[in-house]
Structures are given as C-alpha cells and as structure tokens.
Design goal:
The protein has one domain: ABC transporter involved in vitamin B12 uptake, BtuC. It has 16 helices and four strands. It has helices at about 25-45, 50-65, 75-100, 105-125, 130-155, 160-175, 190-195, 200-230, 235-260, 265-285, 285-295, 300-305, 310-335, 345-355, 370-385, 390-420; strands at about 185, 200, 265, 335.
Length: about 425
C-alpha cells in the first residue's frame, strides 16, 4: 500500500477567495440574503407590515406556555381558533372603516341587534332558521347603509354618526327583545352548529392547508408576472419559494394540531374563507382600490372623479354586515341572546384587533388579515390569563398596553414613510 497516490486531498484555496458552496446551498443562501435585503429596505422606509404583531404573538405564546403547559395543547388551540371568530369578523368590518381613516363605534350594538332579530324571529315567531339568519344579516347591512349615507352626505365625522348609532341600535335591540330579556337558541339548530360543528376527518384540515398554500403560491406568481410585464419591482422566484415554504410549515402544523383534538372547526373554516375573500375584494378589485384611494386623500379622490359618497356608504354597509355576522357567531358560542349582547368590551376588542394587527389609524394601510393577527393576540392573552387564573383587570391592562404600542409603532412608521416620501 505504501507508494500509492493519495487522491483524497483537496486542492488548496487561493488566498482571498472563498470555497464554492454547492448549488442548492447557494440557492437557499441567495434567497435568504434577498429576503433580508428586502426586509432591511422596508424597515428603513417604515413598512413593517405584520412583523411587529407576529413577534408580539410569539412572545405571548412563549410566556404563557412557560407558565402553563396546557396553553399550546391541541384542545386550547382549537378552542382559541373558535373564540376568535365572532369578534374577528366584526374586526374585519372595522378594517374597512379604518382604511378610510374613520372609526365605526356602532358595531357592538349592531351585532347585538342582529342576534336579537334572529332569536325573536326564529325562537319566538317560528320563522325558519335560514330565513331568520338572512333577515338578521340584512338588518346589519341596512343599519350600516343608513349610517354610511348619513356620514357621506352630511360630512359629519363617522365616529359621531356611529356614536349616535351605538345608542340607537342598542335601544332598538332592547325593544326587539321586549320584556323577556333573554332568548335561548336551539342547541341543535343551524346557528348553534356554526361554532359547535367540527370536520372530524383528518383530510379536511390538511386539504385546507394545501389549498391555502397553493392559492398563495399562485397569487404570488401571478403578481410577479404582472409586475414584470409593466417593469415594476417584483419578488424573485427564490423569495416566493421561501415565503410559500414558511406558510406551508405553519398551515400544516396547525392542521396537525387541530386534528389531534376534534378536527377542523366549521367556524374557523368560514372565518378564513370570508377573510380571504374580502382580502381579494380590497386588493384586487376596482372597489378596493377606491377604498385605499379615499384613505390616502379624500380630496384627491374627488378630483379623480371617484364616487366618494358611494364608496363611503358601501364601506359602512360592509362594516354593519360584518358586525351582524359576527354577532350571530357570538350568539352561537353561548346559544343565547340577552340584553347585554354586543355590550361590554366587544367594541374595544374589535377595534383593538384591527389596530394591533397592523391597520393604520391614519387610513390607507391595512388588510383583512390584520384583524386575524390582532384577534389572535387579544384572545391568546385572554386564554393565557384564564389558564393561569390571572384577574381580568390585569388582562385589560396588558391588552391596553399592546394596543398603545401598536398605535405608537403605527405613528412612527407613518413618520418614517413621510421622511421617505411614501406617505
């Protein structure tokens, strides 16, 4: 064996040069470096997106999991996914109004009114559930339309118009309920099933994860092609691949955890479909672009011949509709409607969810997914407090602190954007 050539040695690397990495490693490294460069650019320009709320959510989950091992259990996460739906749907409607730089204070009362209309029609008067449900939702649409038209025509600030609506619709709800005060819903009925039904087959949750990930990948590729066609900045294929892979990990992990308890909740499925659909409406339709335009500058929108009155009316109508739908889900959760429906901290939580999730109070920036993220933070805090037997007062203080931090970040982000000529 002595005297044989040693072929295992590698050639020395010339000074000042780096050893070549394998092609797959270079591809991944390039994608990560590209994403990091885009992130640094957005950070300097004040375009933080959903990063702050994701970090807050991660911190909240880590803290409560360290305090109680049951926090991230399949049962608690499944309950959490259902608990966010009612208020979350109301928060989605709030996002529409905030995009105009306005605020709707009547959503709590409208949600209670819609639930009362459904309960009285179905339980007290024997109207079929499907018909009573449609009438209840249309009640919210009508209330929002009245407020929107009043706001658009009189040019009185929306928060003043909706403050009057808060009192008015609450009075109407009390009148609808009458002397009975509380109406119990059928626990086996259609509305009760909204929050109690689960798809027990494991394939449903995984199918939703696959479809959702595939749709995001398709939308990203189509957006890239459209931007390339007109010479606009666009994501690289590597960046899209990394983003999609990250989303796939999250969605399939969520599907796995849900399947370990009772399966995919019907309420969560409806919530995600509604949020995704309205996100397409806002970002891919002419109406949605008009909403963002009005949030940027109402006067500029008028000079561009946009129908300001029609858009403002439609936005408040959408908010009223989502408040009604959310109210029905809240009633479904407790299978009853009472004189306290729509009151308490419901309005504050809905507004806080939209703002904490990243929707700007100054208008023109935010998505429907903001409501999902913000509601996850708020409900995670509430769930963690319940598991650790923490007083409600502390929960309110913590939620208020998170809301204040979100507003401060929003203000600083807008100031940074103004400095870069983006606001």
């Amino acid at each position: 064996m002595h005297g044989m050539a040693d072929n295992s040695r590698t050639e020395p690397v010339p000074p000042g040069t780096r050893a070549r990495r394998p092609r797959p490693v270079r591809a991944v490294a390039g994608a990560v470096e590209g994403c990091a460069a885009v992130f640094r650019h957005k950070l300097r320009a004040g375009e933080l997106g959903s990063l702050p709320v994701i970090l807050v959510l991660a911190v909240v989950w880590i803290i409560f999991q360290s305090l109680n091992d049951n926090f991230l259990s399949p049962r608690n996460l499944s309950n959490l996914s259902v608990d966010i739906v009612g208020t979350g749907l109301i928060a989605v409607g709030i996002v529409f109004v905030l995009l105009l730089g306005e605020l709707d204070l009547s959503v709590g009362s409208i949600s209670g009114l819609a639930a009362a209309v459904f309960a009285v029609l179905n339980v007290n008067n024997g109207v079929p559930e499907w018909l009573a449900l449609i009438v209840a939702v249309l009640t919210g649409t009508a209330a929002g339309t009245v407020q929107g038209f009043s706001f658009a025509r009189t040019r009185v600030p929306a928060f003043v118009v909706t403050l009057a609506g808060l009192l008015t619709w609450n009075g109407v709800m009390l009148s609808v309920l009458g002397t009975s005060g509380t109406v119990n819903l059928d626990e086996d009925g259609l509305v009760a099933k909204l929050t109690s039904y689960y798809f027990t087959g494991h394939g449903t949750a995984y199918a939703l994860a696959a479809v959702g990930t595939g749709m995001v990948l398709l939308a990203s590729c189509l957006d890239r092609r459209r931007r390339m066609a007109v010479g606009m900045p666009h994501r690289s294929l590597r960046g899209i691949a990394v983003r999609t892979a990250g989303l796939a990990v999250i969605t399939f992990a969520a599907a796995y955890l849900l399947n370990r308890f009772q399966g995919l909740p019907l309420a969560l499925l409806i919530f995600l479909v509604v949020v995704a659909g309205l996100d397409i409406v806002l970002r891919r339709t002419h109406y949605g672009r008009q909403v963002y335009a009005l949030g940027g500058s109402v006067e500029a929108a008028r000079r561009a011949s946009l129908s300001v009155t029609r858009v403002q009316t439609a936005v408040l109508a959408a908010s009223g509709t989502m408040a009604a739908v959310g109210g029905l889900f809240l009633a479904s959760r407790i299978t009853s409607v009472s004189q306290t429906s729509g009151s308490g901290v419901l309005l504050l939580n809905a507004v806080a969810a939209a703002v904490i999730g990243g929707t700007s109070l100054f208008g023109g920036r935010g998505t429907t997914w903001s409501a999902v993220l913000g509601m996850l933070v708020i409900q995670s805090i509430a769930s963690g407090m319940a598991l650790t037997d923490t007083p409600t007062a502390v929960q309110l203080v913590i939620t208020g602190g998170v809301l204040f931090a979100a507003v401060v970040i929003d203000a600083l982000s807008r100031r940074s954007q103004e400095a870069h000529g983006r606001a």
